[in-house]
Every structure is written in structure tokens, then in C-alpha cells.
Amino acid sequence: MAMGSALLCITRRNPVVCALWLVVTLFALAAMYVMLDAQFIAALQVLVYAGAIMVLFLFVIMLVNIEKAQKEEQFNKQWLAGLAAAIALGLLFVFIYAKGRGLFPDRAIQMPEQSNTQQVAVLLYGSYMFAFEIASLLLLVAIIGAVVMAKKRI
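Above: the chain's sequence. Below: its structure in C-alpha cell form.
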């Protein structure tokens, strides 16, 4: 079900329909987490991704008038600059990741009989703190980009 809905998500032309298929995909992933006996992660998947992040995505989709943006020539002419910026940003993240690995080396974390929630917290705020912060920075940049694109011209 997850593979089928993900395929439908990337093949639809309407962005709202794509977002709804993404919600189905996220619920299917939550079901997989339940089958793997990770109920806490499944609940987080539904609450955070299928709930909060998808509301944010739909808000951004509605904020940016897609039909108007497709008709405007300025977005069609700047694809080369966008590609160069994306490559530069990717290289920056690779550099930061390589430097961060040296600054924050992985430690073998011994987790004796802890609950699922405690294990997630120890790993998230220990070994994966750098990746967590990079993901939050990417979401912030995406929101700022959507607001800039939707800004009315004076």
C-alpha cells in the first residue's frame, strides 16, 4: 500500500491530490511501524508527519497560487540559478556533515532495558542531533521560500 500510494503521489499533476496521496503513504508507514512493534514511532508518524507537516504543506500549496506561478515567466527563466543554488546547498551540507562527524563522533550508547520513548530520546538528542537540526533548517528554508514566492509584487 505504501509503495502504491507513493507512486500515485509522484505521478499526479494536481499538488493537492499529491499531498493527499502522501498522507496515505505516511499512514501506511505508520502501520508498518506498528507491525514492527514500534507503537511510539507510529504515533509520532501520524501526529507529526501526517498531521502537522501535511497541514503545513497544504497551507503552502494554497498560499502559492500554482496556476499563477506556472504562467509567470520569471519562474521559468530562473531554473539554472535554482539548480546551481541547489547544488551549492547540497555541497554545503556535505561539508557540514563531514565536519560535524569530526566534531561530534558517534559513541556506542548502551541502552539497557529502556522504553521505546527513552531510546528515541537518547538517540535523537545524542547521535542524531546534528541530522535533526539540519532537517529542521531545511524545513525553515522551504517555508521562507514559499512565503517569498507568494509575496505580492508592488
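Helices lie at 2-11, 15-35, 39-63, 66-71, 73-77, 79-103, 116-124, 129-150.
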